[in-house]
Amino acid sequence: MRVEISFPMNAKPDSSSVELHGAASHGASAIKSKLRRAITTGVYTHGDRLLPERELAESFKTARNTIRSALQQLEEEGLVVRRAGSGTFVNYIDKLPDPLMDLNDSLSPLQLIEARFAVEPYVTRLAAINATQHDLENMQVLINRLDACGDDKDAFTLLDGEFHEQLARCARNPLLLNFFQQINRIRSHAQWRAMKEEILTPVQIAAYNAQHRKLFDALAQRNVAGAVQIIRDHLEKAKSDLVGADSS
Amino acid sequence: MRVEISFPMNAKPDSSSVELHGAASHGASAIKSKLRRAITTGVYTHGDRLLPERELAESFKTARNTIRSALQQLEEEGLVVRRAGSGTFVNYIDKLPDPLMDLNDSLSPLQLIEARFAVEPYVTRLAAINATQHDLENMQVLINRLDACGDDKDAFTLLDGEFHEQLARCARNPLLLNFFQQINRIRSHAQWRAMKEEILTPVQIAAYNAQHRKLFDALAQRNVAGAVQIIRDHLEKAKSDLVGADSS
DNA sequence: GTAAAATATACCAATTCTGAACCAAAACAC
DNA sequence: GTGTTTTGGTTCAGAATTGGTATATTTTAC
Predict the structure, then answer these.
(1) What CATH fold (topology level) applies to the domain B16-90?
(2) Is the CB of B85 under 7 A from strand C?
(3) How far is B228 from chain A (nearest CA, A)?
């Protein structure tokens, strides 16, 4: 499987992460972090081949040497294996912590949406109230990157997760953020990946992105009720898309 | 990409994020304090590279010399390491392993209530829809035991947690149940137990138990809207009790 | 007024990034 | 099989970035 991830520089953990500013925002280490995160969160799975170094370089808008430096470090960490003439392959057997491991097996897609229905509207309410100007700037960046990812499903999935996590961050509640991160980790796992392939057509991606932008506008205007309604619509759409794909 | 970190993720929503760019406090020592706080509170984590001195200077609207003076002091404190040609890196190792322990330290009582406001109403909705007869019987037993515990604060706290967990069980959603268990775990920690001592008078216990029973009745009658309203009242009461105890 | 602090500017040295070329191994097309 | 294409592996010189240092001027504090 050829997995595409679109570029960019811009990170966190890490992140993460104000401009007091971002850490590791330049260079090979930033790229290493991004790729590692993509691998450990399940955007790539064991055996997937990464893009060729030359394409990664173009995608990250950096030199091939820089990409190579990042990949070399990932190889030393044992996260990837590289073979001349063949490519760079993910070598990472995902092992979730116990409680989540169990969950991942026993949770149906609808139950996941259900949990999001429980948490996200209230989080959105808090976000609309508490988001700082800086939060909004971060979110703006993510939206632009989402728009830019076109029909690249993997890039969209990763960024969509980051977007919703950033939303949770705006709520200024570490426990709720923690809930969100759990949701994201489950979302990025195997059975969901398959689902994603079914559902995410370019048209759907565009539709989701339109909702992201509307949500951002509502947050920026401190329109609490509006923002909550939009996130409900967003989840409703995700739910109906899911049911549609499931029954087809 | 520049990772933007929202600063006050767990701190009180007071000055921290405002101070970051506040023009009010000039001087190297002020900048040093801000950076140190950013590091020790986890905005930057171990190994992260700070922005280049020149960019920090611009960001703080100050001269590079001033930034350097602040960084030098941080270096003397051992909080950062600087390498010519490379950058300034955070050197701060603190305990991080148990994510929940982490939360327990950084979560304010109000933030916990906030999280419950996010999750419990929807869970109650699902519970009202999905609860089986067997669930209701279990809940009935818990209510009886709650009634029986009189003014025993510890017993009440424990059973109250079980009651809410049973409620979550009725929702038939393992992820939401997991969220609840996390909430309960935090509730049972030291600082919360102390809080309980303040709040839980026999009168309050009786009031909570009355709400438990009303909630049970609504569930038994499949009165979804009613059950949701009762849990909201329940949380609202818990919140105002908390605020009351806090201000006294 | 004086001294300390902050600013502004220029240059140096260490490190990293870039851009390019070429090689070797694997995959592919025929 | 043969030849072509793709892909990682290697090397190198020069540009760009970044902390380190020095000096002079301006502002602030007392």
Answers:
(1) Arc Repressor Mutant, subunit A (1.10.10)
(2) yes
(3) 12
